[in-house]
């Protein structure tokens, strides 16, 4: 028997699709995203209503204990993508192209195919510039792409540390141009990391694709945090301003994920204390 549609059919209970993300933005529904690296946490986050999970190259730091994301390989991300995929039934799985795997279109395609075949629904890559060609190459070959601008951790050697980006007017204008360019290249979503709240809000208003902030203020269409950070684990370095421990108030991993999802949806996270002015 087919269930008839009713007011009780919440679209939030259906698996997320790429078109669903753009619809969420149009309808003003905020997206809650967390990183995740294994099936056990994936099941818990999925059940708590987390919309998107990211197998981020942050796994190099929080899982492997390295001091940057640069040593992470395509095989590492593919392995964790397969693990996470087995734990999900509703959340959309995004996998990070690690350092240099997106250096040219052919390499990026090969890695992205491996991630989609392991269960990802989208791949993420850092930057604009020559990466625009990579985005177009992937999107033309039916691979949904999430772009990532602002603080791009794979640029840590050039940047000299993990610092807020787009602080002066010229840098903010460049960031806004890059954001328009990744959308024009075909990106379906955009992560904005460590940018002043006003700049992120302006970019969010400029674009039709959802923006997902981390240290980018409350004006984005969604938020992401590293799982270990929102569970209060010691990351081995100074805790960034945007990190909030949701386990402290939740009392369990499931409650922490639920509290995070609700705080994002209701616009209570991030507040000014967890953003850059
Ligand atoms: N555990 C963890 N959480 C993350 O969010 C994260 C990683 N690892 N690894 C990869 C990158 C590195 N990230 C970081 C790391 C440090 C800061 C940080 O301390 N930022 C300063 C900004 C200072 C400024 O420029 O004003 C801060 O005080 O928040 C930000 C992002 C984000 N990503
Ligand atoms: C922090 C998020 C956005 C990320 O890129 C990662 O986990 O690698």
Question: What is the CATH top level name?
Answer: Alpha Beta
Sketch the major β-sheet: 8 strands, parallel, barrel
CATH superfamily: Phosphoenolpyruvate-binding domains
In percent, how helical is the residue content?
25-40%
- Helix/strand structural class: alpha/beta
Shape: globular
The SSE string, one letter per element, is HEHEHHEHEHEHHEHEEHHH
CA gyration radius, whole angstroms = 17 Å
* Order of adjacent strands in the largest pleated sheet: 1-2-3-4-5-6-7-8
Keywords: Cytoplasm, Magnesium, Metal-binding, Methyltransferase, Pantothenate biosynthesis, Transferase
Pfam families: Pantoate_transf
Function: Catalyzes the reversible reaction in which hydroxymethyl group from 5,10-methylenetetrahydrofolate is transferred onto alpha-ketoisovalerate to form ketopantoate.
Subunit structure: Homodecamer; pentamer of dimers.
What does this structure look like?
- The protein is an alpha/beta fold and 277 residues long.
- Helix content is 39%, strand content 14%.
- It is built from 12 helices and 8 strands.
- The protein has an 8-stranded parallel barrel, surrounded by 8 helices.
- Strand 4, helix 6 and strand 5 form a beta-alpha-beta unit.
- Helix 2 packs across helix 12 (253-265), helix 5 packs across helix 6 (131-140) and helix 8 (169-184) packs parallel to helix 9 (197-206).
- It binds 5,10-methenyl-6,7,8-trihydrofolic acid (MHF) and 3-methyl-2-oxobutanoic acid.
- 5,10-methenyl-6,7,8-trihydrofolic acid (MHF) is lined by residues 58, 61-62, 69, 151, 153, 162-164, 194, 226, 228-229, 235, 238, 240-241.
